[in-house]
Amino acid sequence: VPEVLAGTEETTTGVIRLRAMEKDGALRFPIVAVNDADTKHMFDNRYGTGQSTLDGVIRATNVLLAGSRIVVAGYGYCGKGVASRARGMGAQVYVTEINPLRALEAVMDGFRVLTMEEAAREGDIFITVTGNRDVLRKEHFAAMKDGAILANSGHFDIEIDLQALAEMTGGERQREVRPFVQEYLVPEGAGGKRVLVIAEGRLVNLGAAEGHPAAVMDMSFANQALSAEWVVRNGSSLEPKVYNVPAEIDREIARLKLDTMNVEIDRLTPAQEEYLSSWTVGT
Amino acid sequence: VPEVLAGTEETTTGVIRLRAMEKDGALRFPIVAVNDADTKHMFDNRYGTGQSTLDGVIRATNVLLAGSRIVVAGYGYCGKGVASRARGMGAQVYVTEINPLRALEAVMDGFRVLTMEEAAREGDIFITVTGNRDVLRKEHFAAMKDGAILANSGHFDIEIDLQALAEMTGGERQREVRPFVQEYLVPEGAGGKRVLVIAEGRLVNLGAAEGHPAAVMDMSFANQALSAEWVVRNGSSLEPKVYNVPAEIDREIARLKLDTMNVEIDRLTPAQEEYLSSWTVGT
Amino acid sequence: VPEVLAGTEETTTGVIRLRAMEKDGALRFPIVAVNDADTKHMFDNRYGTGQSTLDGVIRATNVLLAGSRIVVAGYGYCGKGVASRARGMGAQVYVTEINPLRALEAVMDGFRVLTMEEAAREGDIFITVTGNRDVLRKEHFAAMKDGAILANSGHFDIEIDLQALAEMTGGERQREVRPFVQEYLVPEGAGGKRVLVIAEGRLVNLGAAEGHPAAVMDMSFANQALSAEWVVRNGSSLEPKVYNVPAEIDREIARLKLDTMNVEIDRLTPAQEEYLSSWTVGT
Amino acid sequence: VPEVLAGTEETTTGVIRLRAMEKDGALRFPIVAVNDADTKHMFDNRYGTGQSTLDGVIRATNVLLAGSRIVVAGYGYCGKGVASRARGMGAQVYVTEINPLRALEAVMDGFRVLTMEEAAREGDIFITVTGNRDVLRKEHFAAMKDGAILANSGHFDIEIDLQALAEMTGGERQREVRPFVQEYLVPEGAGGKRVLVIAEGRLVNLGAAEGHPAAVMDMSFANQALSAEWVVRNGSSLEPKVYNVPAEIDREIARLKLDTMNVEIDRLTPAQEEYLSSWTVGT
User: How many Å lie between the alpha carbon of C201 and the closest alpha carbon of chain B?
Assistant: First the structure.
């Protein structure tokens, strides 16, 4: 077995864990946090996840988003993408957060921000994009309306506590009502309702759709490829830490992407370049 | 005259210059970059500038934004705010940028991104929010349509090269057509058109409206006040550098602001807190 | 005093009343319902009222719309315009209606539709655009939050029942807190709050701003002028009824307006024209 | 074979043809124009077509809509729905029209309106929703970019002139590149490009997706059922004409739909009802 010399990491969840490993002294080799490149997370996580998540929900359920109440748990880049697209499809969008700053941003972006306890009573569709576990759990299932639809577009299959949901149903009362849609029948004693879970609570855009479009994955993979090259060139000097994608790579990918879209942008004039680095002019 | 012991800086432009001073060894005392606090620039610059800039344009001109073509120069937080609100008012929005990453973000946000050379021919209203000089200059004025409206919401009065515009008019052919609106008559030989400049090319939200609403300035000023307190408490250990607002202050301001808006958010359960710092669970 | 021979009517409210007069046999001369021309109400009422209403609210209060909760009473063309622009400025928008069809349209457009009784407790800003009276009344004032802002952009000054509000304050506790903003102090016994009324409950876009932009009034006035000409030409054959603006006038105004905006559109090919009137081709 | 006594018609295209038949004296029995009920065309055509059309395009191609240039041909209810949703997904939307009024509405809604001749050069994705033939034809294919995607969501399979496209390719150079996506290779001599056609130019939401969600079809089918009942009850008095769905049916369906969504709306007070029918009060 060859020794691992270095790695690159594509996902937010992966980077969080690798940083935790670094902090615990458990990281054995250098890693490039590809996810944290601007040309990755600002595009893949936002525009990619935004579109493909709704695509997964629609393919699985063919529900009308216009007029529906969609609860988005988490307002990071993925959550921003999902919330923005859900509104763009005519939904009323509710956002839950645990971070005050992001919560405030969601408010100012025109979304209704509230606790999941409250949102659970109102939502028609719930989409978790948090990177955490048990975002939807027993007390929320208990409060939901009949026919609530649950999907996860964050990570793994633990954002929705399906074990708790299964227990509420007595463990047996489940059936597939459409491909990728599991119906949980919560008996009368525990609230009496149907709860619909898409793609077993796994990533809905991969489970019920085709994942992100090529037009965002190209930038993510360009980061992967160029980061791998960078690691090879600089490997000997790297320590077992999480490294950022170098800014030059990030910027170059953006430039190349614009080229492929035939978008031309402005260049600084010499006078503008000089002005930006000066501090002696002004009113 | 008492010695200056420390300072805080409110604006993007100011922080850029102070960092340039630090780099040149010209900074004599510590500065807290209040502008760079999330609770400042993500709100004041985006939602504040977004609303107050259009407010200034409308008060000065009473032009209908729906159906108009608005060119926004710069897609930083201020530019994002202006572009988003302009679209929200029904305008077709064009964005110019010099940074590929921001340009790409503008494209993905659904805006048409192009050079100012091209935009100059199409726009009805031009708004500069760049922090640089000469963003609108002679060749652009030459290409503009009759009746083009120019406003600056970036910094100072140099984003629009008014000297060049005055020279094109022969220096005399100007008149105030409405309060805060100066009409420049470019003679036939130089293109033959009227160009309307709001508030002498100074900040349009201050020059032609009332500046930002209190509901964003409260956070900016909270950063000022708490940063000043922090400087007093930590002054003896600070060097003549540009400091960031401490993250605890930033987060506390967000929390307090949500409180005043009666917005309640979720808290992590103990299991969630543990999960976020772990790296041993997962599929 | 010369006899009135015919008239034209600009407003929704006016047309409703003239039709009521016609129904009651009280109409003495022919009227052209200029308001009902598509090039009038679809533009003036929607894009004009949308922009100028928010302009009035912002000028009077300088309140931040982003993140605020705006209740729009009425979802006709004026209400659609106000709701759409309020959302475009970052507000959470609530809509009240008495017509199920319009209510459903508002829901599908992504707005939260509810009764005023419920909305009164949640709103920060209330805008009436109904054409009816007492839309905001005693029970609503009683439920409102401290600092609620009330504006009318519908008709007259009776959409907000200011008499009831004055009675709740004991008739004396009022003061102008900013130009065009009257603060009513509801004493502790009656709820204990401040309620802010803009422009005395009269049309906020006329009372606190400049009314509609010229770029929509041009179409309204073109309808007036061409309808007046049409009345003169056809006067002898007209009865004391409410007449619609002839479709040719309406369409010609749209065509002319596009011309002034340099917007070119497609023309039907002969094959397409033939196809549209046929019923023999198809799968 | 039993005699047909009456019918109901679901689609815009169908109603246009039936009215043409009535005009030509070719209609043999009464028809109810279900399509023209407000609770049908304002919802099914707009929100249903809006969502399901993009659903079809995404399923067939998995293309990223954010940042793409989508040309929508036709700005009736279907076109409004498609354009609105395309913008909501982050696309730059261009609209073509042959009707000046609708073109103007599209402009004021913030879309770029232009001729198809011009749009053909700029678009990435073209969606026809006109109800007419040859909307995309030879001269447009010739001007398109390599990789242009074509879809029809209007009627039949004649909005895109596929015969002309096939002739440009020499009739042979076609292949299925994904399910429901046919690639036409236009040889170098005729422009040298690939043109991708979804679902053979037939309705993309039926051909490549699942059609409209149940939550809009419910209203359309309610109109069908209640119109059929109405025809049975009134059949003897009906002539061979196209009849509108009675307003009471339309309104009742809206009321019932709101009920199923748990949306409660306001009712007129007696004073308000009286006011609406009066013409004696006012300022």
Answer: 21
User: Which amino acid, residue D270?
Assistant: P
Cβ–Cβ contact A265 with B under 8 A: yes
Q: If you measure CA to CA, which chain D residue comes closest to C113?
A: D263
- Residue in chain C lying closest to D22 (CA): C279
- In chain C, whose CA is at the least distance from the CA of D264? C114
**D152: helix, strand or coil:** strand
- In three-state secondary structure terms, C130 is coil
Taking an 8 Å cut-off on Cβ atoms, the answer to whether C67 and A110 are in contact is yes
> Which residues in chain A are closer than 8 Å to B218, comparing Cβ atoms?
none
For residues C4 and C60, give the distance between their C-alpha atoms in angstroms, rounded to a whole number. 40
ipTM for the complex shown? 0.94
- How far apart, in whole angstroms, are the C-alpha atoms of residue D162 and residue C14? 52
Helix (H) or strand (E) holding A21: helix A12-23
Q: What is the pTM of this model?
A: 0.96
- Nearest Cα residue to D135 out of C261, C264, C257, C276: C276
Digitized pLDDT (tens) for each residue of chain A, 283 residues in all: 566 688 999 998 899 999 999 999 999 999 999 999 999 999 999 999 999 999 999 999 999 999 999 999 999 999 999 999 999 999 999 999 999 999 999 999 999 999 999 999 999 999 999 999 999 999 999 999 999 999 999 999 999 999 999 999 986 689 999 999 999 999 888 788 999 999 999 999 999 999 999 999 999 999 999 999 999 999 789 999 999 999 999 999 999 999 999 999 999 999 999 998 888 876 5
The residue ranges of DSSP E strands in chain A, in sequence order, are 7-8, 31-33, 69-73, 92-96, 112-113, 125-128, 148-152, 174-178, 181-186, 193-198, 242-244
Candidates A70, A84, A87, A108: best to mutate against C (most CBs of C within 10 A) is A108
Q: Are the beta carbons of A51 and D67 separated by less than 8 Å?
A: no
Task: Give the integer Cα–Cα distance in Å for D265 and D248.
Answer: 18
Tokens of D13: 């295209």
Inter-residue contact D106 to D97 (CB < 8 Å): yes
Q: Minimal Cα distance from D262: which residue of C?
A: C114
In 3-state terms, what secondary structure has residue B102? helix
For residue D152, the cross-strand partners are D128, D203
C53 in Cβ contact with C153 (< 8 Å): yes
Tokens of C62: 């300088």
Instruction: Please report the number of interchain residue pairs, chain A to chain B, with beta-carbon separation below 8 angstroms.
Output: 158
The beta strands (E) that lie in D26-170 are given as: 31-33, 69-73, 92-96, 112-113, 125-128, 148-152
Optimal mutation site among B102, B113, B162, B265, interface A, most CBs of chain A within 10 A: B265
| B110 vs D90, D107, D108: nearest CB | D90
Both structure tokens of C121: 């407790």
Give the CA count within 13 Å in the CB-facing half-sphere of B60. 31
Q: Does C55 contact B50 at a Cβ distance shorter than 8 Å?
A: no
**B89 reaches C (C-beta below 8 A):** yes
What tokens were used for A196? Answer: 């619909």
CA-closest candidate to residue B186, choices B162, B164, B170, B163: B170
CB pair distance less than 8 Å for A216 and D64: yes
- For chain A, the chains sharing at least 3 beta-carbon pairs closer than 8 angstroms are B, C, D
Q: Please report, for residues A168, C53, C70, the alpha-carbon distance to residue A119 in angstroms, rounded to integers and kept in the order given.
A: 20, 32, 20
What is the CA A179 to chain-centroid distance, rounded? 23
DSSP string, B211-224: -S-HHHHHHHHHHH
**B-D C-beta contacts closer than 8 Å:** 29
**Nearest-CA neighbor of B43 among B206, B216, B195, B165?**
B216
Put simply, the answer to whether B91 touches D110 (Cβ < 8 Å) is yes
Determine the Cα–Cα distance for residues C244 and C265; give it in Å rounded to an integer.
26
